[in-house]
Amino acid sequence: MSILEYEDRHIPLPLFYSSVGLMTGFTLIFPMLGIITLPLAIMIVFSIVSGDISFIDEEINPFVTEEE
After folding, report:
1. Is 51 left (phi over 0), alpha (psi -120 to 50) or beta?
2. How far apart are CA 38 and CA 27, in angstroms?
3. Residue 48: which residues within 8 A CB-CB, separation 6 or more?
4. pTM of the prediction?
5. Per-residue confidence (pLDDT) for residue 46, from 0 to 100
6. How far, CA to CA in Å, does 3 sit from each of 10, 14, 20, 23, 43?
7. SS (H, E, C) 3-34
8. What is the pLDDT of residue 41?
9. How confident is the model over 9-40, as pLDDT tens digits?
10. What is the rounded distance in angstroms from the CA atom of residue 36 to the CA atom of residue 2?
């Protein structure tokens, strides 16, 4: 059976418009996300490698005493 064999061939418009809107929205959003996030990720990795971003706390441990 196909949809053409029914007398009532009605596709609800809100369902149709929402699916077209989602397809169009994702098609437009994904290239923009790639253009924005790829350079940002490269800059973050470069900052970690160059030492601008560090995940190690460089606080002085108060329990270590200096030798005189």
Report:
1. left
2. 17
3. 54
4. 0.47
5. 93
6. 9, 19, 20, 23, 52
7. HHHCCCCCCCHHHHHHHHHHHHHHHHHHHHHH
8. 93
9. 666 778 888 889 999 999 999 999 989 999 99
10. 44
